[in-house]
Amino acid sequence: MASKKETLDFVLSQMEGIEDIRTRRMMGEYLIYYRDKVVGGIYDDRLLVKKTPSSKALLPEVPEEIPYEGAKSMLSMSDIVFNDHRDNAVLIRKVFEVIAHDINK
Fold first, then answer.
1. What pLDDT was estimated at residue 34?
2. How far is 98 from 104, CA to CA, in rounded Å?
3. How do residues 12-34 score in pLDDT, each as one tens digit?
4. Residue 40: which CATH number?
């Protein structure tokens, strides 16, 4: 199942004010880049981010989900972004920063 453009638009609205974000459509889904590093994506209308030591420590309670068959598990931020109804930009920025940092190690 492909993700809807409306889902991407909503997730991006939750990231308002975060610089260095870009997205790329790929095979019906959307990859999310932060400072030119893939940090996550929209898969089947779910926001999933890379599981790194720092992102797992920052989000210990979120479930892990598989974005597509054969892929590594990722951390699901869907409940936070879609159901929390708070300004999530600060948390999202922090998660993206720690993932980018871990990738650069």
1. 94
2. 10
3. 988 888 889 999 999 999 999 99
4. 3.30.1460
The first and second tokens of residue 87, run together, are 């300004």
Measured CA distances, 87 to 1, 24, 70 (Å): 28, 24, 33
Is 86's pLDDT higher than 90?
no
- Residues 98 and 43: their CA atoms lie apart, in Å, by 21
Number of Cβ atoms within 10 Å of the Cβ of 5: 11
What is the domain extent for residue 65?
Answer: 5-104
The total number of structural domains that make up the chain: 1
Q: For residues 9 and 32, is the Cβ–Cβ distance under 8 A?
A: no
